[in-house]
């Protein structure tokens, strides 16, 4: 009988050994490991235009496969990573990049959330500062102080310790 | 005044939602991409014909008069549905060229003999490379190309009666002048 702990350990080992299901087919893989690694990194940055929320590295669509092969072909032909991406952008537009380039039309996309967060922080700081100011007690006027002293003196007369 | 000030975040949130919802309510398909090649010359290509001896399709064939280039395949259902409309357009004197995208020529031939052939010329793009040059991402796609070989419009998806009447025909008429 296998004890539960060992069974759990075996299961964990099996899960670790199981690789993720890859869209990249064995016949696509390049012999040159360095080039293949570059191709994989690039493919992860390129949008599959059929599924649109997957990279071509993840997608099983026909077009994704064609583009993966194309990326590898360009790399073998000696293109730099940027040249490969430029090649794709020239045909499919900047939407083909999963990370949008920083241009005028994507400024809001890139900096909008940070700007909103900053604005929120300013509002919070201003509100807190105001609240603290409102909570600070105003000092007593001379008349108020005299009345307070008189009241305290009265209490002393009752015989309590001063 | 104080109360008005407090309404600013609400107003800003409403404005943000409105700005994000507008393109959807406006009827734009967010998955449809504008072609990068719009108002640019067609990419260079030279494809063989469907039969031995039949004329193929090359970028050089796209100069002279405005034409439609229809990217199609026998495996694509909307392509099947739009063939009668393309035939009607061809009957009205529009030159329609076909780009057989990633299709077995035998299947393409059967497809055309079953449904009819609206294409004046067909280029066989067996490996889909010319499709990539055009930025094709969904078949069918239909390109309007003017007399100097410049891409003037791309329609992604089936050419419906509405698309033909409201977009393609008026644009072709305009380009002919």
UniProtKB/TrEMBL annotation, chain A:
Alphabetically ordered keywords of this record: Cytochrome c-type biogenesis, Heme, Iron, Membrane, Metal-binding, Signal, Transmembrane, Transmembrane helix
Gene3D superfamilies documented for this protein: Cytochrome C biogenesis protein
PANTHER family (alphabetical): CYTOCHROME C-TYPE BIOGENESIS PROTEIN CCMH (PTHR47870)
Phylogenetic placement of the source organism: Bacteria, Pseudomonadati, Pseudomonadota, Alphaproteobacteria, Rhodospirillales
UniProt cross-references to InterPro entries, sorted A to Z: C-type_cytochrome_biogenesis, CcmH/CycL/Ccl2/NrfF_N, CcmH/CycL/NrfF/Ccl2_sf
A GO biological process held by the record: cytochrome complex assembly
Transmembrane segments: 108-129
Keyword set includes Glycoprotein: no
Family indicated by similarity: Belongs to the CcmH/CycL/Ccl2/NrfF family.
GO cellular component terms listed in the entry, alphabetical order: plasma membrane
Record's signal peptide: 1-23
Pfam families, per database record: CcmH (PF03918)
Function: Possible subunit of a heme lyase.
Originating species: Thalassobaculum litoreum DSM 18839
A GO MF label: metal ion binding
Domain CcmH/CycL/Ccl2/NrfF N-terminal: 12-152
Protein name as annotated: Cytochrome c-type biogenesis protein
UniProtKB/TrEMBL annotation, chain B:
Keyword hit for Isomerase: no
Top-level lineage group: Bacteria
Subcellular location: Cell envelope
Pfam family, one: Redoxin
GO biological process: cytochrome complex assembly
GO terms assigned for molecular function: disulfide oxidoreductase activity
Family: Belongs to the thioredoxin family. DsbE subfamily.
Name this protein carries in UniProt: Cytochrome c biogenesis protein CcmG, thiol:disulfide interchange protein DsbE
């Amino acid at each position: 009988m296998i004890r539960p702990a060992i069974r759990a350990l075996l299961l964990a080992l099996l899960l670790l050994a199981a690789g993720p299901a890859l869209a990249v087919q064995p016949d696509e893989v390049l012999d040159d490991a360095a080039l293949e690694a570059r191709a994989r990194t690039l493919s992860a940055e390129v949008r599959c235009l059929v599924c649109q929320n997957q990279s071509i590295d993840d997608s099983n669509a026909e077009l994704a496969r064609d583009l993966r092969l194309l990326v590898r072909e360009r790399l073998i032909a000696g293109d730099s990573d940027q040249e490969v991406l430029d090649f794709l952008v020239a045909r499919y537009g900047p939407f083909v990049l999963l990370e949008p380039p920083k241009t005028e039309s994507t400024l809001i996309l890139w900096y909008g959330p940070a700007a909103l967060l900053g604005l929120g922080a300013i509002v919070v700081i201003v509100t807190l500062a105001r609240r603290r100011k409102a909570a600070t007690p105003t000092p007593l006027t001379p008349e108020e102080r005299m009345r307070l002293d008189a009241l305290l003196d009265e209490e002393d007369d009752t015989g309590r310790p001063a | 005044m104080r109360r008005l000030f407090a309404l600013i975040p609400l107003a800003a949130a409403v404005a943000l939602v409105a700005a994000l919802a507008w393109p959807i309510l406006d009827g734009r398909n967010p998955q449809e991409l504008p072609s990068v090649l719009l108002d640019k010359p067609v990419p260079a290509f030279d494809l063989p014909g469907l039969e031995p001896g039949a004329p193929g399709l090359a970028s050089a064939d796209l100069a002279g008069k405005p034409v439609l280039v229809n990217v199609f395949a026998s495996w694509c259902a909307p392509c099947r549905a739009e063939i009668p409309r393309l035939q009607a357009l061809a009957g009205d004197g529009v030159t329609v060229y076909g780009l057989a995208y990633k299709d077995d020529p035998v299947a393409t031939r059967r497809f055309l003999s079953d449904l009819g052939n609206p294409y004046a010329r067909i280029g066989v793009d067996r490996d889909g490379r010319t499709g990539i040059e055009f930025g094709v991402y969904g078949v069918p796609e239909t390109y309007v190309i003017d007399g100097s070989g410049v891409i003037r419009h791309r329609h992604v998806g089936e050419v419906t009666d509405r698309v033909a009447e409201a977009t393609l025909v008026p644009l072709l008429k305009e380009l002919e002048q």
